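Meet our chain:
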Amino acid sequence: MKLSYNQRKELYDNGFVVIPGVIPQVMLDEVKKAINHSLGEEGMNKENLPILRSQSYCPEIQYSSVISDLFNKTPVFDLVNSVIDLEKTYPINGAQIALRFPRMEDPIAPASPHIDGMYSPNNGVTEGTIQNFTALVGMLLSDLPEDDSGNFTVWPGTHLKYEQYFREHGPEALLEGIPPIDMPEPIQIKGKAGDVILCHYQLAHGIGPNISPNIRYATFFRINHVDVKNDWKAPMVDIWMHYRENMQQFAKEEKVAVK
């Protein structure tokens, strides 16, 4: 499987694309069984909840084959490989297990935008560093038919706005916080279990409130080109440099059109 032209253009313009029905039901059942077994057997220490929310729930299984197979042994691998050469990225050995539980507060604050790899007290990023990567691949493990159900939330086009901001102010500006750009209206992504969300790293995103009666189940895989470690700043100002030519071509066409 490959992303179509329209899907690639959507990824370029908006910074994300949703591909429906990618994960087979048998694998969805196995991974939810593993997660629920972990919750039932291991439980959760309330004192650890801030770290679990920021890093991963069920850490004892996040690097197990039942998790990594969702990427490596499904069409997800070929879909991502069609726009990023996965031979030039670090192998996928695990993922963030991202659960969002119903909240009882009233009112509940809306999602706030962030970019991954910035320091916060609970996310494991070293203070004073940016741990950027290439792409974020989210997988819905439960249905999300409505807003405010713990939906992955995106601010379309912000990847391009941040690219321009970092060209003008330098990538180090991210150490000072989220850049002060004009933000578009956010979109709460709805879908069904088995849908996949492919996002550019630099897209502003967040997690919407969950006022539904259900737990939101998802996993997030981070695709990291090996060259990011040697020069983390370069892809912040040239955001398609670690993508295939079929993505870089859109930027080249825009430059020609401007001329």
User: Anything to note?
Assistant: The chain has a mean pLDDT of 95.
